[in-house]
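Board notes, transcribed. Complex of a protein with 2-(butylsulfanyl)adenosine.
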Amino acid sequence: MAGHNVRERIEKLRETINYHNHRYYVLDSPEISDDEYDGLMGELKRLEEEHPEFITPDSPTQRVGAAPLEAFGVIEHREPMLSMGNAFSNDELLAWHKRISGLLGEEHFDLVAEPKMDGLAVALVYENGKFVTGATRGDGFRGEDITQNLRTIKSIPLVVHGDIPARFEVRGEVYLSKQGFKKLNEDRAKAGQPLFANPRNAAAGSVRQLDSRITAQRPLDIYIYGLGWVEGENPPTHWETLEYLESLGFKLNPDNKHLTDIAEVEDYYQHWLHERERYSYDADGIVVKVNRYDLQERLGFVGREPRWAIAYKFPAIQETTRLLDIRVNVGRTGTINPYAVLEPVLVGGVTIKKAALHNEDYIRQKDLRIGDIVIIQRAGDVIPEVVAPVVSLRTGHERVFRMPEKCEVCGASVVRPEGEAMAYCTNASCPAQAHERVKHFISRGAMDIEGLGEKLAEVLLHEGLIKDVGDLYSLMDKKDELIGMERMAEKSVSNLLAAIEESKGRPLDRVIFALGIRHVGSETAELLVKHFNSMDRLSRASEVELTAIPAIGPKIAESIVAFFKQEDNRKLIERLRKAGVRMEEEAAGRTELPLSGQEFVLTGKLEAFPRSEAEARIKELGGSAGSSVTKKTTYVVVGTDPGSKLDRARQLGIKTLTEQEFLRLLKEA
Ligand code: IVH
């Protein structure tokens, strides 16, 4: 066969195979026999072997997996992957509905109900109809690049046809059917390998294999549940989007349902609850979504949870075990936090050894005693909880828990202020508190200092290189000592110092959050910046001024005022200010510019303007311009004759932009 004929035949075969793949793996209704299918695949494989120059990543032969990776790259989600609020009863569901009806000013709007799959969330990006990257959810902002592994899942189309936007992202849940799970564990038992506890763990473990050839052997499947983002038009409702995605060849859960009203949800839920044994996959509840996107937009988000969706969970799974001990640890604000030490027990497939007990009253109300047999419960991914003791099994040897009178770390006295549930260590310089405060300060949502994790922070504290967060910013004076530390080469020290330096520019709300003021979470911090836009003004605010802000109650206000009253805290803020940490936010009433938090790295030559100007424009819009591509780079802008930064971007799975795309982005911003 002549070259172009081979190429045509290859293309024809791929198209035919993709069609039958879809019939078999997505629609579950094959048109040809397995032998016929194998025949087509055999021919394609042979032709590609003879003409490797024609092999492309979207060929159906490429679903067998590729050479193992050393590590997964990182993919930044263009739109964060969110979580969802929960309801555990019909009352809670109705309360949610009432709340959003109130916000919308209408009561009757249609909904979509879907099973809440118990698997692993993934985001799949398609460019010009081809599947190009797939990522895990990760922390919601950045996930792992598991493209190679996802290619092996036959119900993920490698190519989609039809009226499609140039680029879009779909999201869904990778899962193992109950049957697939059973078969996998049977095979593992035969091979003497450890068994997976549940389908969810098995799916997560399979998808996060560095060797995609192993993934290829696992009977993974996917249900797509929505669009992440799209460059271009999308239908006006979620249901129409689902239909549209189905028409493109994506696999949708046939048990999704379009409901006209909230009154229909309970039936759907009850049906599932009673029939769930009969379903081929595990679900831990149902998801209810507002159908119309215009309403979704109006409802918006609270934190990382959309108001327009809720997970209505099935009742939790319970087990019993022994409460071996009740111990405490010291939190960052000095709280003494009791927790249960449990005889390890498998609850819904996860081994539970510890559970938070929150405070003294919580323990007393439940009448928990050390040595009790207790009921443990956990629902889906919810944190395990001690429900109650089994009183009838008591022997009389159980012991009542007493809050320690002295802090176990520093020996200072423990007090419980009147009217508060928590007990506190009274020593503001308790090392345990300092440790927790440093850990909080450097963490992701706070100052987010790259390369400074909890472990390293502990070493720095332990070695006496830092005593509090203020010391972080004078670490550059201790470079020699840092380099002398174990596993700290000169390079990693300068990276660390650079990351610390960079953190000075974090937006003010992050700085406020990072201070760890009791009751001030990241959302409250944002609100505070909106109203005061400077640390100074905030530090002078009275309780009256603070409580005038909707959503700030007396408890938060009191805590803020108390924080700024303390001499130590004021000194710390002064040190941070001197070090150059941001203490003001320019634009009053707005904390974010359109490109805030986004880092651009430019490579190659741009046509429209010199690099310096491009960088200036990025900065004007709140973004930053970096000189090297790291995991934290948001976009790499690729001009003509790009350098090695482009390779690095590909390696790390960082999104690249052409000059055109970059210009468009600036314009939109
Ligand atoms: S929609 C705001 N639909 O639940 C909504 N999520 O708690 C974003 N999940 O990480 C997700 N089934 O992995 C949606 N039918 C479904 C789902 C579903 C399972 C998971 C998903 C996500 C988590 C959110």
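The chain has a mean pLDDT of 90. The radius of gyration is 28 Å.
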